[in-house]
Specification:
Layout (H helix, E strand, L loop, with lengths): L1 H6 L9 H6 L6 H21 L1
C-alpha cells in the first residue's frame, strides 16, 4: 500500500536531478512557497501602482 511505503520512507530517496537539470540546488517546499507568496505580493503592488 502506498501510504505504508510513505510512512516507512520508501520515497525518501534524495537525488541530484533538480540540480543537474536546472543548475541550482533543490529547495524545500517551504522556501518555494515563500517565494511564490513574495512574488504574488509584488505583483499585486505593481498592479495597484500602475
Amino acid at each position: 500500500m502506498t501510504l505504508e511505503r510513505v510512512h516507512v520512507g520508501s520515497f525518501a530517496v534524495v537525488s541530484d536531478t533538480v540540480e543537474r537539470v536546472t543548475g541550482a540546488p533543490a529547495r524545500s517546499l517551504e522556501a518555494f512557497l515563500a517565494d511564490v507568496v513574495a512574488v504574488g505580493s509584488q505583483a499585486r503592488v505593481i498592479k495597484h501602482l500602475t
